[in-house]
Design goal:
The protein contains eight helices and seven strands. The chain has 237 residues and is α/β, with parallel strands linked by helices. The protein has a seven-stranded parallel sheet, sandwiched between helices. This is Beta-ketoacyl-ACP reductase. Keywords: Oxidoreductase. Belongs to the short-chain dehydrogenases/reductases (SDR) family. InterPro entries: KR_dom, NAD(P)-bd_dom_sf, Sc_DH/Rdtase_CS, SDR_fam.
Amino acid sequence: MSPEPRSVLVTGGNRGIGRAIAEAFLAQGDKVAVTSRSGGGPDGALDLTCDITDPDAVEAAFTQVEEAHGPVEVLVANAGVTADTLLLRMSEDDWSRVIDTNLTASFRLAKRAAKGMLRLRRGRIVFISSVVGLLGSAGQVNYAASKAGLVGMARSLSRELGSRSITANVVAPGFVDTDMTAVLSDDQKNAIKQQVPLQRYGTPEEIAAAVTWLTGEHGGYVTGAVIPVDGGLGMGH
């Protein structure tokens, strides 16, 4: 259990990795708020419907969290989308929608959360990236660019905010057993596993464990880091 319950905000917290992260913080006794476009967060969380690409919606969500739980002390920017296709077929909308959701919205969330953290003189920011942002992936130019951008963002924030005891880190999952990977065929799943040294998919709970460690008392001297949780797929990057 945490010494004092903290105000935690997890975006995309209604399913998959985001839900597992929210549940892990709830299990520690923290005060957790989750955002999603459709709702349906875990029991015990403040469940907020929010389109993170809308600045007004983000401001409204933070206001609700602050009224219910106090200033956000831990931000986990997890929400993301894909629009996969080869470069020459990728539309302007395919590019913009993924960058706006995965990268620009993360900037918006971090900026808003930092206001409260600076006043508190403490805070933890974690961006959920992807091994694809480190390795690249054919057919995912937009997604890879958005996830790689989170690394530069986190490292810049760690230098900018570190003097106020605010850390900014990246967790980079590999292939994880979620709704997004469930749609793959058995042949596709087996081909992916062959690339992974541990020969299996990760679980959402394994990603959540990395996030709670980074944001816990033992992760206080880690900032500007990229923590891969990918079964060894992206080693060396």
